Amino acid sequence: MSKASSSPTKAAGSGSLEQFGYEQQLKRELTLKDLIVYGLLFMVIVAPFGIFGEVHVASDGMVPFVYLVGLIAMLFTAMSYAQMSRKFPIAGSVYAYVQRGINPHIGFFAGWLILIDYILIPALLYGFAGLWCHDLVPQVPVFAWILLFVVINTFITLRGIKFTAVVDWVFFALEIATVIIFVIIALKYILGPGAETTELTSPFSPIFDPGKINLSFIAAAASIACLSFLGFDGISTLAEETKNPEKTVGKATFLSLLFIGLIFIGSTWVAELAWGGKEPTSDFVETGFFQVVEEVGGQGLRLFVYLVVIIATAIPNAVAAQSAITRILFSMSRDKLMPSFMSKIHTKYATPHLTILFIGAFTMIAALIPAMQLVRFINFGGLSSFIVLNFTVFWYFFIKQKQRNTPMDWLKYLVCPWLGVLILGYVWTGFEGLTLVVGFSWLAIGIIVGAIRSKGFRETPEAFKNIGV
Q1: Quick check: 397 and 83 in contact, CB under 8 A?
Q2: Overall average pLDDT of the 284-306 stretch
Q3: Any idea where the domains of the chain sit in the sequence?
Q4: Spatial CB neighbours of 356, under 8 Å, sequence gap ≥ 6
């Protein structure tokens, strides 16, 4: 049995960890609603605002269609997460699922892949937020803004998962209110003078224009949109802090993805209608959505929305990412695959406090790396681990457990996971050469680390020995 670094906290509800060879160390305080809000904030409710112009140009004015394609594509992976979280309601996400679904050593490699995704997402967010804040207040250097956000978020994540959930609800209210305000003002504009200037052939053309849609267009849309939904998978990292995780984690994963998809589609549909099919300006790629906001609501609304995007990126989104990566490192550390300090739990707040401090310091430095280099690592790690996860569902349920007696079994354990593999595999093949180079270099490092920690892949984690897995 893996020993707790502090006295174990009694589980509230189901999801006993003893059956998996672990003791309960984290507090079970999160509900279904808390997890859904966490997932929505991780994917960023206002995320389309920052990239609307780029996606508009790439999709020829069909931004909501792009998000619809992405939603459908990622639902298959969400279903795979739901299947594995019901079977293995433990922290570690894809690391733990592949570890038990296929093999402990392959699970380490899956965890290593998702590790680079989660560990660099906060750095990327801090870098963007720091640049945006410096743009608003040039007197304050970028690094000062990064330091400020790191300190705030480290404090939030240190204080415990319940405190983090309360903070999440505050920012959820702010982001949802911003979307609602924009939609109301934009609809008023569309139904008023905006309706007279539109060049759209139909109000439905941004979401479905038969003249533009073909297989290559759908494939390109999937490539753009799949990356916009990264983050829903983070819900699974909080399984050991959730009440009734067998039922709650999978449901929250699926619902958060569905809800964020509807928000993305609805808000960008209204934005496209407000823009009215006009020719993009020279800086539309960078500021497209904010131009739409100013068109419908003036400079005051533009500044307000811009500030909300900065805050949403710098605090709740980064907090969600930091919470996820600390739980994965905690899970790997208690299996003795990461340094032992990462599994130490704070006696009062029941958080992996030393790991949280480590991640705060690491991301503060990594935030200074150019954004495109970070994106290459994040995209490779996230999509590669998703592909492995989908295959794991097929391998564990359909092959090992032989759950293939009903049509529903074939749908859940063969058709859906393989659709997830194929869709993500296609997106993965679109990576540029440098992304593949840095991605496989990271994987090579993981092979070396895994070989050292497992003594040549001969040893398995203690938890597996105790329960005979």
Answers
A1: yes
A2: 91
A3: 18-467
A4: 154, 157, 158, 322, 326
Beta bridge partners of 384: none
Paired tokens of 292: 């739409």
Give the three-class secondary structure for 30.
strand
What sign does the CA torsion over 28, 29, 35, 39 have?
A: negative
- The whole model's pTM is what? 0.88
Sort residue 457 into left (φ over 0), alpha (ψ -120 to 50) or beta.
left
**Dihedral pair phi/psi, residue 193, rounded to 5°:** -65, -25
Residue 295 identity: E
pLDDT reported for residue 115: 86
Average of pLDDT values for 118-141? 89
- Residue 69 is classified by DSSP as H
What is the maximum alpha-carbon separation in the chain?
Answer: 71
How far apart (Å, rounded) are the C-alpha atoms in residues 56 and 278?
11
With tokens 């020279």, the residue in question is 282
For residue 12, name the pLDDT band (cuts at 50, 70, 90): very low
Query: What H or E segment, with its residue span, contains residue 374?
Result: helix 371-393
Q: Report the sign of the C-alpha dihedral through residues 439, 40, 238, 315, in that order.
A: positive
Q: Which distant-in-sequence residues (6+ apart) come within 8 Å of 392 by Cβ?
A: 80, 84, 97, 98, 101, 102, 110
Helix-helix angle 416-429:371-393, to 10 degrees: 150
**What integer pLDDT is reported at residue 1 of this predicted model?**
37
Residue in 288, 280, 263 with CA at minimum distance from that of residue 64:
263
Instruction: Give the CATH fold of the 18-467 domain.
Output: Amino acid/polyamine transporter I (1.20.1740)
Assign 438 a pLDDT band (cuts: 50, 70, 90).
confident
CA angle 137, 299, 294 (to 5 degrees): 120
> Would you give the distance in Å from CA 329 to the centre of its chain?
16
Q: What gap in Å lies between CA 244 and CA 35, rounded to an integer?
A: 12
Please answer whether residues 266 and 183 qualify as being in contact, where contact means their C-beta atoms are separated by less than 8 angstroms: yes
C-alpha–C-alpha distance, residues 247 and 82, integer Å = 9
3-state secondary structure string across 232-300: HHHHHHHHHHECCHHHHHHHHHHHHHHHHHHHHHHHHHHHHHHHCCCCCCCCHHHHHHHHHHHHHHHHH
**Which of these, 167, 361, 200, 173, lies nearest to 271 by C-alpha position?**
200
How much is the pLDDT for 465?
65
CA 71 to CA 227: how far, in whole Å? 11
* CA–CA separation, 162 and 311 (whole Å): 21
pLDDT tens-digit readout, 192-210: 876 667 767 778 888 887 7
Structure tokens at 252: 């929250």
Amino acid at 169: W
Report whether 373 contacts 61 (CB < 8 A): no
Per-residue pLDDT tens digits for 339-369: 999 999 999 999 999 999 999 999 988 888 8
